[in-house]
Amino acid sequence: IIKKKIQDLRPESREILVVYGMTGIGKSCLINQILQDPSFVELTNRAIFWLNLSQHEDDALQLLFLDQNLRKALLILDDVKCRKIIEAFHCCRMIIITQDKDIVTPSNSIKFYQIVQGFSESESLELFKKSLNTDTLPSEASDIHNLCEGFPMLINMIGSFLHDSKEEALSDNREIWKSIKEELPLLQSYKDEIVFMIRRNEGKLSQIYQTYFHDLAIFPKHVNIKPDILIELWDVSSY
């Protein structure tokens, strides 16, 4: 359905498709997967642009899209949180990926698509298999998918954790699978589950890299921290 909606976006009308849903549900992954189809190369005259701008504007980029050669282009604005971003770049057909559909003013040229479902069981299991480079998984893998309800961000984090614990994950005792399965039901929300898996992944790091991780985690997304400022903040001799 969503692939057809993208194909039907008319460049002359600068139509917009708004893809919205909760954080981590897989909005960006889905759009990226769909756009791998070779048909979009011809449809967009080889002009597909993906920008993650959040609440930031870039005048130079805005001028770029005024080029007449890009009138058939497809522009994807990811993680959009500000209506001004949409207004600034609305010079060709666009896909807006956002958590909040209310930042877009409805009109005849705007279509909405809500993503409410995460990974299927087969997709989750395939991700676990790729993480471990194996063709077989214990029964707990399906149980973990069901406990996560296919929530993509959480499934990806578990896959990363299993990858870093590959030897233990592939052992016959299956303790690592059992521990994840037993602890997930004790958590109250997706946020708690994500924090739980972040801590599990963090625990695989050496002590010094855990320190670096904590240092990096304090910086807001998209903020450009200059090297000379980092030098003041960090003891660079330890690097």
Automatic annotation (TrEMBL):
Q: Give the GO cellular component terms, alphabetically.
A: cytosol
Query: Taxonomically, which superkingdom?
Result: Eukaryota
Which terms does the UniProt entry file under GO BP?
A: apoptotic process
Q: Which GO terms describe its molecular function?
A: ADP binding
Domain NB-ARC stretches? 7-57
Q: Which PANTHER family match?
A: APOPTOTIC PROTEASE-ACTIVATING FACTOR 1 (PTHR22845:SF5)
Q: What is this protein called?
A: Death-associated APAF1-related killer
Species in which this protein is naturally found: Meloe violaceus
Lineage, highest ranks first: Eukaryota, Metazoa, Ecdysozoa, Arthropoda, Hexapoda
